[in-house]
Structure formats: C-alpha cells, structure tokens
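Sample intake — Fructose permease
Collected from: Limosilactobacillus agrestis
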Amino acid sequence: MEQEKVPVQGQVAERTISLTTSWAYFALSIVINSLGNVLTLVTSSHVHPQFLGSAYWTAAENNLGIAVLGNNSMTLFWAFMVLGMLTSVLNAILMHKWDWRRIGGNFIFMLPFSIFIQWFSDIFNRIMPDATTLPMIILYVFINFLGVAFIGTAISIYQRVNLVLHPADDLFQIIRFRYCHGNATIAMWLSYIPPTIMAIIAAFMQGGIYNFGLGTLFALVFQGAITGWADRYIFPKLKHQALDIGN
C-alpha cells in the first residue's frame, strides 16, 4: 500500500490552505461521519436477528453507554462525549505531553458530533422500518457498509484538515504517523484496542454485547484501507495540514 511521506517526529508541517477552507472541509466531514455512524447503528438495530453490527468504535461506545446509563434518549450523546474525552487522555499519554489546546479541540469536535449522532439517530430510527424481507435485508447490508465507507472517508478529510479531531481519530493519527510510518490499515487495527476493552467491560456489565456483527467485521478489515484510499482520491489536493505527532 502506498504510504504518505510524513514529517519526522516533533516536526509541525505548515498549513497550506486557508482557515475558511479548512472549516468548510471540517463541517462537511463531521456531517458525513455522524451520518455514517448512525447508518451503521440503525441498520444493525432494524435487522432481526441482529447480525449486521455497526462500526467498531460506535458499537463499543454504544454498548458501554447502555451498560452504564441504560437505553434512553440521551445515551448516545453522553456515551460518545464522555468516552471520547477519556480517549483524549490516552492520546496525551501516547504523545508524551499534555496539550490543552489539542484536548480542547477534541472537545470542540465531540460536542457537535455527539449532537449530530443523536439527531440523525432520531431521524433514521423513525423513517427506516425493520427489514422483514430478503431484498430489504440486502439493502440494509449495503447501507451498513456504505455507512462504514462514509466514516472512513470523513476521517480522511478531517484528519488532513487537522483543525480539531475526534479523539479516536486523533488516536488513529498519532499511531499512524508516530508508530506505523503512515500505514493507515495497521494503525486502524491498533487503534481498535481501546474500544475492544470498552466492549469487554460492557459485556461483563450487561451479560452480552450488541451491534457487533458483519458490519463491524467489515469496518475492522476495511475502514483503515478506505481512509487510505480517500487520502488519495477524495479531494486529492488536500494534504495533511500542520501535522504534530509529538516528540
């Protein structure tokens, strides 16, 4: 797989696009990411028995959120927000420094992202019925995979813009460029260790795990590769901006 040339550790690359353009890319990507996450969750919950599953981080955070908070109208918002900020602490450990600006950026990302997640979830749970026929099930499998592709593409866009990041994607970027020499696929697999721990905790608390299945496996295997593909083919002139992977 082609790897992007990256700066040495500690070097901060220059920003080559304007802040206005950067925020426009960011706004587009956060909507795409939220929509993709919700598509995986909703299709998973509307196919019975539930064999589809959602994206890996999404499934883990949703499970732990339900285990701790119960299944209520605000569970997704609080699960994504709190667990996201805990991931920021892990990022600081891996970066070997406590960067309040970076952590503040993670929070700035998480607030609208969590709101969009809850909003899209309310909408699509109302308009998407349960899949009761084979053609509907096949359609929901396609939509589920499409959601994973949306997530991978959105990650590519806002990681390259690098204004503020989802803590999980910040983790992915730190691992990718600090430890994996730019390899998106291996970095994505390593970044799945924290949500795996979340899922194990949730399983012990609630006696099982949900929203893990075919779509989760698809995300586990292909989401990193989709991100690497999007780096080259979605807005190909957009390069990683102001990349800081620590000392």
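Post-analysis note: DSSP finds nine helices and no strands in the chain.
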